[in-house]
Sequence to fold (153 residues):
Amino acid sequence: MSRFEPGLEFVFELKVAVADPVRVGRTDSEDLNVTPIVGGTIDGPRLTGRVLPVGADWWVTRGATTQLDARYLIEAEDGAAIDVVNRGYWHAGEDVERRLHAGERVGEDELYYRTAFVFQTGAAAHRWLTEAQFVGYARPEPGHVVIRVFRLS
Fold:
């Protein structure tokens, strides 16, 4: 039996503009926050457009790991609306956390900030987004979350 090795095809980069998070609350085991999504851009070989100022990321921190659950809309350059559900995980070492709080930039290879996408659209030109699994490698930047999106083969 042969062993299949999955591949990744880079399709676009999202630069999602975010507002300050709203703290919902903390219990003994978790802390819930909501970060509004206020705009952004999409640029890449398979899709260009913009992130609409609709949606948010609900994130829960449990210990050193944060679970992400974002839902928002993007608009392709041709005007097609695309619904995005993006879930994932974030955790970083103490040194990376310290550097982030100091305003330093860190790359997606320096922390675990990984997501999985589900897209919905009625636009025939973008149906390819609804027919495959996509993963994201993210990094924070001031006022933004930048996610390089790949199609899993």
User: Anything to note?
Assistant: The mean pLDDT is 94. Residues 15 and 146 are 4 Å apart (CA to CA). The two ends are 19 Å apart (CA to CA).
